[in-house]
Structures are given as structure tokens and as C-alpha cells.
Amino acid sequence: METEELLKKVRRIEIKARGLSNNIFAGEYHSAFKGRGMAFSEVREYQYGDDVRDIDWNVTARIDRPYVKVYEEERELTVILMIDVSGSLDFGTSQQTKREMATEIAATLAFSAIQNNDKIGVIFFSDKIEKFIPPKKGRKHILFIIRELLMLKAESKHTDIGKAIEFMDNAIKKRCTAFIMSDFFDNKDFSRQLQVANRRHDVIALQIYDQRMLELPNVGLIKVRDLETDKDIIIDTSSKKVRKAHHEWWIQHQIRFSQILASSKVDCTHLRTDEDFVQGLSALFQRRK
Questions:
Q1: Which of 51, 207, 213, 242 could serve as a FRET partner for 272 with CA atoms 20 to 30 Å apart?
Q2: Within 10 Å of residue 12's Cβ, how many Cβ atoms?
Q3: CA pair distance 162, 147, nearest whole angstrom
Q4: Are the C-beta atoms of residues 135 and 79 closer than 8 Å to each other?
Q5: pTM of the predicted protein model
Q6: Strands 119-125 vs 78-84: parallel, antiparallel or unpaired
Q7: How many of the other CB atoms lie within 10 Å of CB of 83?
Q8: What pLDDT is stored for residue 190 in this prediction?
């Protein structure tokens, strides 16, 4: 990608992501993702109805009137974007590929985070950790992340979600909010890693998928390439049996994925490449308030 074209893409994504985070997600993000806890702020005189456990006995003894401690939420979060860059994310039959949608979602979450003074880090993964960008604050950092989203060429086309989750859990020592952006096409069971990570962190799954995963179109013989193995196969989409088998495969995949999420107590929203992701993210934020 030429430098000028890259800068234009970065700017276009920044304008869209900033607009969404300013106008739509400004309050929802803050309400949905809580800080690390409550920090001492000040003392004030005791009022009827205050919890006696909050009385500051040292101040009370000095002034000879009861005073209570006032706390406020520690707002600052560390947000980790775990972005699948395996071969299957380059697939798309509609307006954009899954990876292009993931880029826009990541940018929107990043700008929402920095508006709340949160740190943002990124883990790009396939079946290995392709790149780790440690958490930082600021617009320059966000623009660097967007450039990496657009430019990064994965060394592997395969997927290992469990390995990525394990890396995140080891690399990020303090509690964080981690968004996993993937189509979750991984034949390996990653439920154990997800359960362990979600005990210490707040893990959210964002499943990005194409409408053709639900249903194949009836367009006769088509050549399909598995983007993770580079193998071509011919599919007869005019066959009802073939279309039914594909649909049933998708249903079984989603059932298995739902079971993994349920056992790990992980929130998830499903985002389709031919639909606006704003509604899906808003619904996720509303559920978490």
C-alpha cells in the first residue's frame, strides 16, 4: 500500500471512528465498562443515612463531630484489542471483508477508550502471536494501531484462539477489558483458556462473520478457496443437499461456540459484514450497564 493511500485510509477510519465514539458511544462505553474499584476522594460531615462503616474515626476524633470517607470510581481502564489476522478474516462477499470490519470496530473502541482516559493495547494473532502493541494512551498511539491494522501481513494463515488468550493473560498483569475480534473458526477447544482469563479479566467476544456462513447462494458450481489452507474445492451450490449441509455445519458451529461462551461466562455480540456494527455494539453496551 502506497504511503499516500495509507494515510488517506487512516484518516478516513479516524473520522468515522471518532464520529461514532463521540456521538453514539460516548456515554454508553463509560457506563458499560467499569473502573478498577473505588478510590478515596475526601471526607465530609456525617449525614443521616450514611453507612457507619464509612466513618473516618481519626477525623471524627479531631473535630469532635462524625465525618465519613467519600469514595469515587477509579475510572482508568486498560483495554486490550485481540484481533484475529488469520486467513479466514480476509473473506467477504458483501461491502467489506471481516478484517476491514474488525479494523473499523477496533478504531471505534480505541477512540471511545481514549475519551475515557483509558489505555489501549493490541494483540494481533493467528496460530501465533503476530504482534503485540503494549497499552498506551493518546491519539498518536491510536493512529499507530490503525496503521498496523491496515498494514500488518500475518506470517501464518491458521488460527489458535487459545494461544492468544493465554498470551494476553500472561502479558497483562493487572485486570483489563479484553475484546476478542474473530470469526472464531478454530477447531481446537479454547474454553479452558477463556475460563481462566475471564476470572482475572473482563473478556468480551466480538464474532465477525459473513452472511454466506449462514446460507450458500444457489449459483451453480463455484470454486472456493480455504484461506487458512490455500486449498481450492469445487462446490455445487445448486444442490439442496450441499446447501443444507453447509447450513447445518454453521448451526453446529454456533452451538459449540455458544457452549464455550456460556461455560466461560463471557459476553458476546455477533456482527455481520453486510450490516452496521453500531447496533450490535450498542446492544452489548446496554446489556452491561
A1: 242
A2: 12
A3: 26
A4: yes
A5: 0.77
A6: parallel
A7: 28
A8: 95
